[in-house]
Every structure is written in structure tokens, then in C-alpha cells.
Amino acid sequence: MSPTESDPLSDPLARERAHLSSSRSALRAMREEVESLDIRDVTANWVNSLILGRQIEDRIKALADLADTPLFFGRLDYLHTTQEGQRFYIGRRHVHDAQGDPMVIDWRAPVSQPFYRASKKDPQDVGLRRRFGYTGGDLTAYEDEHLSDPAELEQTSRLLQAEIERPRVGPMRDIVATIQPEQDEIVRSDLSGTVCVQGGPGTGKTAVGLHRVAFLLYAHRERLARTGTLVIGPNRSFLQYIEQVLPALGELEVRQATVDDLVAHVEVRGADEAATAVVKGDARMAEVLRRAVWSHVTPPTEPLMVVRGSRRWRVPAYELEEMVRELTDRDIRYGAAREALPQRIAHAVLVRMEQAGEAPDDRVQNAVARNTAVKAVVKECWPAVDPAKLVLRLLSEPAFLAEHADGILEEDERKALLWAKPARSVKTAKWSAADAVLIDEARDLVERTHSLGHVVLDEAQDLSPMQYRAVGRRCSTGSATVLGDLAQGTTPWATESWAQALTHLGKPEAIVEELTAGFRVPREVIAYASRLLPHMSPGLAPVESVRENPGSLLVRRVDAEERDRAVVAACAEALEHEGSIGLIAADARIAPLAEALEAAGHAYLSPGEETTAESRLTLVPASLAKGLEYDYVVLDEPAAVVAGEPDERTGLRRLYVALTRAVSGLTILHMTDLPEQLA
């Protein structure tokens, strides 16, 4: 009888499975302990009880044991017991036994860092690094690296490669088991600094940004609990795709939004021509708005008379004018200065009262500030400003716009801003997305925008300068993680450089990191897509894919009469493989392709809808493909994707995005000639 048969735990894999089982039991016990808490006698009032109850609910959710997710994915055996123990299992969250001893260490803990950073050249006191392979939630394999053994050659981990290449079905998943050293440096960078990550397709920049949020919440939980965190994505489909990453890591309190959500002060019902949107998004509009807001302040020309009882107190016009000038010279918001003015006037009256022998107190000062005569002066020289009405006036009245844009905007730019048919009111106006950003800027001039502790901005290359300013206001006293790829800028106002973008964001001192190692897109596919780089983003380094997948690219010409049938057949062929399928096409081609799929009996999803084992095909307009990924992609008519954009550079960038969504294979079908840049 073999040792394994007589003692199952003599088998290393059996021992690891036993530890997994024990860890799951310990996690279940931790959850049950929280569920059993009775808070009825420990809270002072119903408010405290409600807050504590919600915290307990969140803790219970964070301790959920996801059946198809590994509880731990790695193990570190240290050579010396400089830590509290010699062996550590690395997982998505901390798990301890009944005595409080750790069974699984959170991947964000300092002791876990060598799992990502240790190497043959720098073993960091690690004797053995073990990676685990899983099928669903069941441990099926392990792989060892003896980092301190000079006789063992350094090799690429098969389990790591398999995890990277695992089929994509469902929402985006975390990369906690596959974080690379250069990614880990960004993930663990300090909260106080803003980091900008330039990364081509498949370099993992989005996942790095989300994992950085999870790390910062671990390292600075109390601070960020007070100040808040926010993830900003390009559209709702993208946010739906990434929304499960942070909960899988046990983080539930991170808000997700688009830029449009942040500035949703009015209902957006209109759209701008590209040229108009570019002007509205230009940073110069900030100065136009500042002039327009502060133009409402007019120095008083008449003295003020305040009547209290039988006494009359006079404040001369020159003194009122000096108060107004002092407030306009200070670097404070329009609304804050307006609130300060009546108190300044009241103080001047109180000085006169004291000189006359009276002894007024704060209550008297507040009463004077609310005096009808004082309120009338404030209303006349410092009227309230409604941000939406202000922007409405700028877009409707040529003279008002010309006055405040003088020396800033050219005449043709001012004409582009003006509405052909001015709206009657804020409610009836057909506001565009760019208008909403202008209103947000005006609101901040009137009243300071609340700042968060940390903001993650993904697909940042597509923002206009005014949108950068809107995001920057949300982290003016905090930090940011900016993620993007200049080569994927597909808006007419896309940024030309990160230095430019970070200046508009208000973070010019941010560190720019570049990720050039690709882990998602096969080498053959990324090399083909990179042919476009010199024509749309010269000087940008191409991604070097670490993945060999021969035969991953197929380019085929089809006849006009068989084009739609050929696309459907290519989708059917892709569905024979495991994983998700994306059919990407120019927006104008979506309707006919949808009809062709339906006629052939193929059900399909829309971007943002979660793929399942039964429904794996998604029909994707090229305009919504950014940030998404599929195991196999069928790309319809590349020339139509380019032609669907207002200019060639933007069209080529849109095509670059579409070409780089595939994880395992890309099939390109075209009836018309391919863009010459792909030759």
C-alpha cells in the first residue's frame, strides 16, 4: 500500500485541499459570528443602531464564500521565521481560525507582497512560491518555484498562463492571482500621490486601477471611509462589465459613475455637432464662465441706512464698495462671498454701535445682517446666480457671450456655441452632454464641489479639458488614478498628451507609468493592430504581447451578396469554441447584422449584458467596444468602422480598439478594401 493510500494527507495536493476545506469552515464561522451579533443593547439611539446594522450587513457580505472563486491562490514559504509564521496562504481576503491565527492572508497585506515581486534575482527571503490551479472553486493542481535554489531555472508559470487565458464568460474578473511586478508597483503606490497609467490593449490597466482602489481601502480604510472613493468609466456598459471586481475582493463601498452622471444637473436631450462640442469642451470656456459669473457683481453707488428702533446707522457708499472689492479679490466662491457680504456690512454697523456706547453681541450682528435694507443692498450689488440660467444666457444671447468671450474665443467659435433657436427656459432647453459640463463648472464657481479621497478615471484619453476639470473637482483635496491609452482616443477632443490632461485635471505633478507588456491580446493580433499606430499615434510604443497563439488571426474577403451570411457563419464557428464571442461592427451595420443573426436563429446580447454559458454572443457597436473583451471576436468591415467617424484619425483609433478586443482569436471579414494603413 502506498503512503498516499494509507495516509491521504501525505499527498501534497490532498494536504492543500484539506487546508482549503478548513479555511472555508473558518470563513463560515467568521460569518456566523457576525450574523449572531446582538446590537440591541449596545447602541445609544436608533441612528447609531441603523448605522451599525448597515456596517454589520456589509461585513456579512464581505465574508461571503464565493463557491466558484478560489479562497486562496498562492502560498509563500519563507526561509527564516522573521514573520509571525513561516508559511502564508495568499488569498482575496483574510481568514483566521477560532484562536485568531491566520489561515489565509489578504493579498494586500505587506507579507503578501513577495508573492508578486519575488524573483530568482531578488527572492526576498522566500524559499518556495506555490501557485494553485482551480476548476470552479475546487483545487486541482499546484506549481512550485524554489526562488532560493540557484540550480532551478526560472520558467514561465503554466498555471499563471492558464489563468490569464481562461475563457471570459460573465463580467470582468479580478486579476489578483496574476498581478505582475510592474503592475503591483502601481497597485501599491501611496494614496497621497496621483498616478497616470498609459497602457495599450491587454496590459491590464483597468484591472490595475481597480486593484489599486482595493489596496488603498485596505491600507487607508478609516480615511477613505470618511472621504469616499469613486470609479469613473466611459459608459454604463463598461461599468456593468467591471462592477463585480471590487465586491469579489470584499470591497462594497465604492461608487461607480460616468462623467455624465457626475454633471447631471439638467436633463440631456440634445447633441452637439463635433465642432461645437470641441469648443464647449475647450479649457478656455472656464475663463468665459468665470467672467460671466463675476460680472453680476456691481459696486454700490448709494450709502446704506440701517434702522434699529429709534436709531439710524449709516454706512457710506465708499465703505460698501471697499467691502465688495475685498471679497472679489479673495480666492473664494461667488456664493461664499455673497453670504459673507451681509456679515461684513453688519460688522461695520456694530462698530458704529460700539462707538456710540452700545454693547451689541453676535445676535445683534445676525439681526442686522438679516435687515431688509442690508438684504436689498446685497441683492442689488451681489445677486444670486443660477448656473443653468447663466449657461443658457451664454448660449442664447450673442451680446452676453461676446462680452465675456472677448479675447478668448474667435468669432467663428462664438457662432458655433450659439443656439440657432434659443430655448425659453432651463427646463425646455435641449441640453447636450457638453452643456451639462459647462453648468457643472458654473456651479463650482458659485459653490465649491465636494472632494473625495480617491478617484479612479478609466478611459481617460477620451475626455475633453472641461471634463477633466469636472473630474478634478471631485478629487481636488484627494488623489487620483488615471488610466488610458492615447492610441484609443476616439473623440474629436481626445487628449494629445498626458501632461496636458493632468494639468486640466489639476494634478500636473502626477507620475506617468507605462505598461507595455500585453497579457490579453495574442501576439499575432496585436502586431496586426499596431500597424495603425504610426498613422494615428506616432511615437507611442506598441504593446509587446507575452502570449503566443498561432492561427489567432484570420482576414477574409467576402462578396457583397454573401457578406451578412458569412458574418453569421463566422459567429457560429466561433461559438464552437469555449468562451465569449463579440461581433463588432460599425454602428450603421448593427441593424442589418441583428436581422441576419435573428434570421439564422442566433440569440445575442447587447454590450453590458452579462454573458452566460447559454448565451455567449454579444453584438457590439464599434462605438461601445472600448474597455470590453471577448474570447473570440468577429470584426465586420473595418473600412466602415473608420468611415463612421468624423475624421480619419478618430476612425483609425476606433478600428484599433475593435481590433484589440480578442483574447483568443480574431476573424476579420470585409467586402470593401481594408484601410491602406493595415497593408
From TrEMBL:
Gene Ontology process terms (BP): recombinational repair
The UniProt record lists the keyword Nucleotide-binding: yes
High-level lineage: Bacteria, Bacillati, Actinomycetota, Actinomycetes, Kitasatosporales
EC number: 3.6.1.-
Domain UvrD-like helicase ATP-binding residues, every copy: 178-531
InterPro entries for this protein: DNA_helicase_UvrD/REP, P-loop_NTPase, UvrD-like_ATP-bd
Domain of life: Bacteria
Swiss-Prot/TrEMBL keywords: ATP-binding, Helicase, Hydrolase, Nucleotide-binding
Name of the molecule in the record: ATP-dependent DNA helicase rep
GO molecular function per UniProt: 3'-5' DNA helicase activity; ATP binding; DNA binding; hydrolase activity
Binding site for ATP: 199-206
Class of the enzyme per the UniProt entry, highest EC level: hydrolase
GO (cellular component) term, any one: cytosol
